[in-house]
Design a protein that fits this description.
The protein is an alpha+beta fold and 59 residues long. It has a single domain (2-58), classed as TTHA1013/TTHA0281-like. The chain has one helix spanning 31-45, and strands at residues 2-9, 15-19, 25-28, 54-58. It has a four-stranded mixed β-sheet, with helices on one face.
Length: 59
């Protein structure tokens, strides 16, 4: 199973990621920080379930 997050760039240069088919939201100022925040958000969302095998950030 893979979790897909769609990424949009904010007008201030930051990034927002939103899960497809699940209530996962995160944001960051840089792409590297967004990747870290996305992993933490997915881990938190699936804390009591089987974690997905991968996370895809789709622009």
């Amino acid at each position: 199973m893979e979790t897909v997050l769609t990424v949009t760039q904010e007008s201030d240069g930051g990034h927002v990621a939103e899960g497809l088919g699940c209530d996962i939201f995160t944001q960051a100022d840089t792409w590297e920080e967004l990747r870290k925040n996305a992993r933490e958000a997915v881990d938190a969302y699936f804390f009591d379930q089987k974690k997905p095998d991968g996370i895809r950030l789709a622009a």
